[in-house]
Amino acid sequence: MRAALRHYGPVLTAAITALTAFWIVVLIVLPQLLMVDFSFRPMLPPSKLGGPEDVHTLRNYATLWGNTVHRGIFLQTIWASALVTLSTLAVCYPVAFYMAQVAPRRRLATLMLLLVIPFWINELLRTFAWYVILAYNGPLNAVLMTLGLIDEPQRWLGTPGAVILGMVYVYVLFMVFPIYNAIETLDRAQIEAARDLGASWPRIHWRVVVPHARPGIAVGCVMTFMLAAGSYAVPAILGGPSSRWFTEIIYNWFFEGGNWNQGAAYAFILLVLCVGFILLMMRLFRVGIGEMAK
Amino acid sequence: MTTERDSSRETQRAAKAFTRRTVLRAGAAAGAIAAAGPWYVRNALASSGEVRIFAWAGYFSDEILAQFQKDTGIKPVYVPFATNDEQLNQLRASGGEGFDIIMPTVDRVPNYLELGYLQPLDEKKVQMDRILPSAIQGSAETGGVAEGRRYFAPTHWGTEAIAFDRKKAPLKYGASFGDLWKPEYAGKVTLRGHSGLAGIGRWLEAQGKLPQPFRKAFTDEAAMRANWDEILKVAIANKKSVGQFWSSANEALGAFQANGCVIGQNWDETAVALRDQGLDIGYIAPAEGAFAWMEGYCLLNKARNVEQAYAWINHFLKPQVGATFAASKGTNAVALGAEQHLPEKAKTFFAEAFPGDALQKLWWWPVQPSWYVSLRNEYTDKYLAA
Questions:
Q1: Complex ipTM, two decimals?
Q2: DSSP A40-73
Q3: Predicted local confidence at residue B13, as pLDDT
Q4: Domain range enclosing B298
Q5: If you measure CA to CA, which chain B residue comes closest to A258?
Q6: Minimal Cβ distance to B384: which of A12, A155, A241
């Protein structure tokens, strides 16, 4: 705080603090509190609000454990989000390594540009592009049929595979850049030393590159996992009944079932369990928050 | 010298302070102000020459809106939604504020009354004498009138029946909702979760396989559970036939355009849109009778532009406007004399969809109370997840 005062002067410091406080309190804390309060109350028509039935209850939370359909979808969402994270990691690690250690400077710029350009287009439009590609009458089926790999069109849309594919595509950048940043700081001499001492390529990655890049990998995985678990657009556009996402159930409680209190409880459960899952993973992989912040 | 040094220090400090973060923060502040702005501006704009309409997505083309503005001098602001429930819950989020006119189906009007969002219509201001008497009476019996006061001015009615690919799934009148589940259409059927279940229910009822009359499910919870348990069993047994579920008009189009569906329980609107895109899609009422719905306008309690809202309602009761609007969606205007303005294409569509006694067999959705909607949602959930 004192450093900020010296740096920016009293007026600007006050303004920055006020804006940050406004941001956190009004835009994050208050809405969350409101939602949590909502989640502990029963749904009532306006005439009964504030009446004797308007008490705090755990019923909305109990619903999830009683409803096998929703519980199944919840577990499936966590599992599928983990799969999305792993697939994204598998796609991004080689790319990031190539960019950080192998690519010559000029090619690096081109590569960066190629990676970033698709992200100038809105996420929804990119997802719709996949809808077109994967459609029953779409180009993917046409190509596979021409090649003689399949005899009749397959239904790709609505399968869990389509949703995972769409998400990996949408979240690639969130994985590439943290890993790239981490690998870039690795001194190439270490890799060369390992090679001189006779280590194989997999062993070099396993013992030298990955340990060094661990914080970057952790940041990328956490971001991808959170984005995937909280995604609505991709499963709504590319998914179907067999790949329903938990966020769609929450949306349904709000907009189709009209039970906001129930929806708020579900949303809160998703938030808490996702945070828990991430803390657990950080524990397992021995990554600290401070390390990630670097 | 000292002043000079001071000033240069000032400059440095300012330069240091002006980082990317400052710009971002300033941007965020400007955004917050912009977001808060409308709350204040909204009052300032009250009772201007505009009317705010919350209505179904795809209903009002730019031409329809421009025509209204030309005829009345009032600027229409049209905000679309995709489903009845989305409409209801958006309004709950704003406390029934933000629009002058909304557009529910008549059977859902009681949901809004329960929340206290509607004001009764002044029947002297709505040109009731321009509306088909049967539509006035029909809407009064299915939720549009409560305690002797009218809350709903009908504009058009339409149906949900069977859309089919004329080549790959040719159908004749006499086909049933049950035809969707014939083995030859396996994997190529599209329907909407909740109304699809209702369609199966009416097919089972026609064969005498339901424990209770289907209509009783709308007034009696035990009867609903008894019936819908039965419906769910049949629905799940046939679920692998479904190629794609739809829930909005757009998704329904996608089922036929992109996803290889050849038959489905769909809105007339969908069949007409597909026809207009050159697909060879027909539309026919099933033997059980098509589902029929009526839509119209309701006036919100917190409407700011009441006179303009009446002008909007009356505009669609002009025979020509009503006919143009309804024909573009394949639905049917309730304005008297609209049939004379119908294009030939619309007349053919109607005649083909409702041959023989199909019009007498129309099945109007009864009032859907809120407990029914949440229970229906529960069954839909089980069906989709199965």
A1: 0.75
A2: TS----GGGTTSTT----SHHHHHHHH-HHHHHH
A3: 56
A4: 50-156+293-343
A5: B89
A6: A241
